[in-house]
Write a structure and sequence with these properties.
The complex is a heterodimer of chains A (94) and B (247). Chain A contains two helices and eight strands, in the order H-E-H-E-E-E-E-E-E-E. Chain A is an alpha+beta fold. In chain A, the strands form two sheets. In chain A, strands 1-4-5-6-7 form a five-stranded antiparallel beta sheet. A three-stranded antiparallel beta sheet of chain A has the order 3-2-8, with no helix packed on it. Chain A starts with 6 loop residues before the first helix and ends with a strand. The N terminus of chain A is likely disordered. Chain B has two domains: 94 residues, Beta Barrel (Elongation Factor Tu (Ef-tu), domain 3); 132 residues, Nucleotide-binding domain of ferredoxin-NADP reductase (FNR) module (Rossmann fold, 3-Layer(aba) Sandwich), CATH 3.40.50.80. In chain B, the strands form two sheets. Chain B has a six-stranded antiparallel beta sheet, covered by helices on one side. Chains A and B meet through helix 1, strand 1 and helix 2 of A and strand 3, strand 6, helix 5 and strand 11 of B.
């Protein structure tokens, strides 16, 4: 998963845990244990275990197996955009 | 249980305690306190006079048995706009906007059982300390080990408390490793965490363990992949990465 040329990206990466607060405020429940199935490689990962890139203008959560972007969240002055096309589905325990 | 609505609240800083040259613990009294799970964190939000806002997530260091307040231990990051505010500007009596507790992934409590293997690098020990303080507050006898990697002895957070815990608890073992300078006369580990070290520290716990790894991203990557190579099932390994460190 690690390549020599992306040490800086790897060093700045955190995990989905780091955006637990933002996700919980959006969805009204803890989402770090919700499981997303990657649309690209079909790996199942808890959102808390996704690779999170949070230093940009928004948040990008990537699949730890194949690095596909699972969820992207951007907030503007008036709205929040959530692009979750990288997930085939998310499973939330009742 | 999580609250249905997670909202920002204004905490009051009731104590500030330096832990090491680079870390301080902040005690926050919360008007809407609720018990956290050890390993959870709080988001801290700063708002500038011009409306610019920024937030960071910090692990709770204290045990949930302490009602009404939490401790956050924060490492000063060289260019960290939030951590330098907390270190240099925030004073006892000040107010601070926080949201939490959040996160259900990197959590442990005694109901989950053990044996418990905690591996921390630098300020990655903070959420692990919440787990150990909780375990101690409940007088749990679940076997536990902490493997704690620091640059030097001066960088060891909670040093005296950890030593007191280890002395008074036969089921708890703590191993330190120093990656830069070891204290004089040190006969323990003096290198980065590797598989030989992990095997030695983990051996007394047996095979059926719960493992929590927290620290700088590169340490967590290295330790987690070593654990998997050692044959530990991936679902028994929980990791939390916190990005770059102070230097």
């Amino acid at each position: 998963m690690m390549h020599d040329d992306d040490d800086m990206n790897t060093a700045l990466m955190v995990d989905g845990n780091a955006v637990a607060g933002e996700l919980q405020q959006i969805f009204g429940r803890d989402m770090t244990m919700a499981v997303a199935r990657c649309s690209s490689c079909a790996a199942d990962s808890a959102l808390g275990a996704l690779m999170a890139f949070v230093r940009g203008p928004g948040v990008v959560l990537r699949c730890p197996a194949c690095e596909t972007a699972i969820v992207r969240i951007v907030e503007t002055a008036s709205a929040r955009y959530i692009d979750a096309r990288g997930a085939l589905y998310m499973r939330l325990e009742l | 249980m999580q609250p249905p609505q997670l909202e920002w609240q204004v905490a009051k800083v009731t104590a500030i305690r330096p832990e090491t040259p680079q870390t301080k613990s902040f005690t926050l009294a919360l008007p809407r306190w609720m018990a956290h799970q050890p390993g959870q964190h709080y988001d801290v939000r700063l708002t500038a006079p011009d409306g610019y806002r920024t937030e960071r997530s910090y692990s709770v260091a204290s045990e949930p048995e302490r009602a009404g307040e939490i401790d956050l231990t924060v490492e000063r990051i060289a260019d960290g706009e939030v951590s330098s505010y907390l270190h240099d500007v925030l004073m006892t009596g000040d107010q601070l906007e926080v949201r939490g507790p959040v996160g259900g992934y990197f959590v442990w409590d005694i109901a989950l059982g053990g044996p418990l293997m905690l591996i921390g690098g630098g300020s990655g020990v903070v959420p692990l300390m919440a787990m150990l303080r909780h375990r101690a507050a409940r007088r749990s006898t679940i076997p536990a080990r902490l493997l704690y990697s620091s640059r030097t002895q001066d960088d060891v957070i909670y040093k005296s408390e950890l030593e007191a815990m280890a002395r008074s608890d036969r089921e708890l073992g703590i191993a330190y490793t120093f990656t830069r300078q070891a204290p004089s006369g040190w006969i323990g580990y003096h290198r980065r965490i590797d598989s030989a070290m992990l095997e030695e520290v983990m051996r007394p716990l047996g095979a059926d363990i719960r493992t929590y790894v927290c620290g700088p991203t590169l340490l967590v990557e290295a330790v987690a992949s070593t654990l998997v190579r050692m044959g530990l099932p991936a679902e028994r390994i929980r990791t939390e990465r916190f990005g770059p460190t102070g230097n």
